[in-house]
Predict the structure.
Amino acid sequence: MIITNIPNLSIMKASICVFIITLLITGCSQTPSFRQTHKPEDYVGSVFRDAGNLVQSPTHWDSSDVKTFGAIAGGALLIMQTDRSVKNFALKHRSGTVDYLADLSVPFGTQRYIVNGAAGTFALSYALGDYRIADTAFLALEANFFSHSIMGTMKGFTKRVRPHSTDDPFEFHFFDKHRKDVGSSAFPSGDVTTAFTWAAVVSESTDSPTIDVVSYGLASLVAMQRVYYNAHWTSDVFVGAVVGTVVGIKVVRLNQGKSDNLSLTPIINDDFLGIGATIKF
């Protein structure tokens, strides 16, 4: 069994990560503030309101929503069929260049650095009265809380064993209270959930293609890194990306008063595994 060590984060790398996240959030300042007032209670109230909307949203699904959910679930099951082969491919194709890229991406999926970057940006922007930036930073924090609540719940009941501890991608220990070790918390990937949550919030909060590419590009590097370091199966990464993207986009659209016609569909063929997103306006 091969266990790949994930490098420890240096203070410099963590600082660079926080700086880049701050820059991306600041780049969304071109979007007008969607709040009429900016009192502390307005922000707290929006969290409870959005939580209610997220919990109730499945009760409002129509047939297309059910089909989309089924397609994503089916896509995850299909990807599971490739988990072992992708793991073996990644372990056999190590290189200095990929090691370097994977190492650089680690902070962008590390929750404490993302939260610190967003929280610091919110506090400073709010104090300076730049509510456009403050709003985006707050949404990143809020969406991260929701997506991690979902992700943590899924990890808690699936108890999937990580690839560095087994060669069987179908080794789950559902609802096993005795398995509390990190090796049994693979599904879905928390780092990827974090990365795609903030990427979706930042991307949805601006019309800049450059910010879109940078945000989702960094999130995709995190997804690659988790498989490359043998910390997660490909299907863990896929589901984490879906959870993060859906929650991030939904939280922004709820607060901006936009229609929430989001459709995600897995794209699976011989050359590519990914997610297709469609938003109807």
Summary: Residues 131-158 form the longest helix (28 residues). The longest strand covers residues 261-268. Confidence is low (pLDDT under 50) at residues 262-281. DSSP finds ten helices and two strands in the chain.
